[in-house]
Amino acid sequence: MTEPAIKIVALYKFVDQPDFAVLRAPIAGFCAERAIRGTLLLAPEGINGTLAGPPAAIDALVAWLEDGNLFGGRFRDAEVKYAFADTQPFHRMKVRLKAEIVTLRAPEANPGRAVGTYVAPEDWNALIARDDIVLIDTRNDYEVALGSFRKALDPRTASFTQFKDYVAENLDPRTHRKVAMFCTGGIRCEKASSYMLAQGFEEVFHLKGGILAYLEHTPAQESLWDGECFVFDERVSVTHGLGIGEAQLCRACRQPLSPADRARPEFVEGIQCHHCAAEDNGARRAAAAERQRQIDLAAARGEAHLGEEGRAIAERRRRASKARREADRKRSAQ
């Protein structure tokens, strides 16, 4: 059996690091030298990101980040999950400096100081089956639309910062004494659990490793998960065993679409879906239609379509080549 060409790592850790900005250059350089791509966030509260590259390169990166001689051991025991792909799911490497690795804008939420009770994937079913547990999906509405745990409450948030409003308007620590939460990889519900403890909730549980860990370790026949799990890369969604799901992105508005969504009459391949069909945005629709025409032409010729990132790279190369020719012309004229 051929080993997959690309290894994907999703990692995070909450750790106080006031010097976070000085890590940007060495991490970016390490990844660039090894053909690693993706996005990594650095903030005073920790590290978070998803990266992909050759398996040996990804293994070397994780070992390097956990090396106590380099970063004082701050990233040791980070939450790390792996997946594989036949092709590189990311276009470039980005290391970004942020105020938070997951944005909630609630200073009282500090998982480095207080966090809810971790629940292992193998113990999750028993917990959420209890009658005294309020189960909350902490992800955003477009993620929940693809799949969730049975009986989970959907806060219907467009961004994680709105979670605070949901808690204030719908939950009461005097009534909802035991709360269980989950998210894609564990990071959002880890911060949400810290926030809820700060609000006075008595017992707060969260799924260790998130939905991805649950889907990886729980047999499909024992699962309480329905649907697929949205992921923030070109796989779009995954299923049990972390197999690639059937969801696709609308190329116009970037919303994830299930097969049922793509069967709706509003859906036009590459141009619109039911989320954006009613929008009065002729320029975007025209651009999407042209993009789809180019994809269709490339397919008819048996060629790979460059895509937006590829076209940007080609344009940069064209400009660089033109600049070199212009410089050569000027030198010849001297």
From TrEMBL:
Enzyme Commission number(s): 1.14.-.-
Domain annotation Rhodanese: ranges: 129-223
Source species, domain of life: Bacteria
Pfam family of the protein (one): UPF0176_N
Reactions catalysed, as given in the entry: uridine(34) in tRNA + AH2 + O2 = 5-hydroxyuridine(34) in tRNA + A + H2O
Signal peptide: none
GO molecular function: oxidoreductase activity, acting on paired donors, with incorporation or reduction of molecular oxygen; transferase activity
Keywords tagged on the record: Oxidoreductase, Transferase, tRNA processing
GO biological process, one term: tRNA modification
Sequence ranges of Basic and acidic residues compositional bias: 306-315, 323-334
Cited Gene3D superfamilies: 3.30.70.100, Rhodanese-like domain
Region (Disordered) residue spans: 306-334
Function: Catalyzes oxygen-dependent 5-hydroxyuridine (ho5U) modification at position 34 in tRNAs.
Similarity comment: family membership: Belongs to the TrhO family.
Protein name as annotated: tRNA uridine(34) hydroxylase
Gene responsible for this protein: trhO
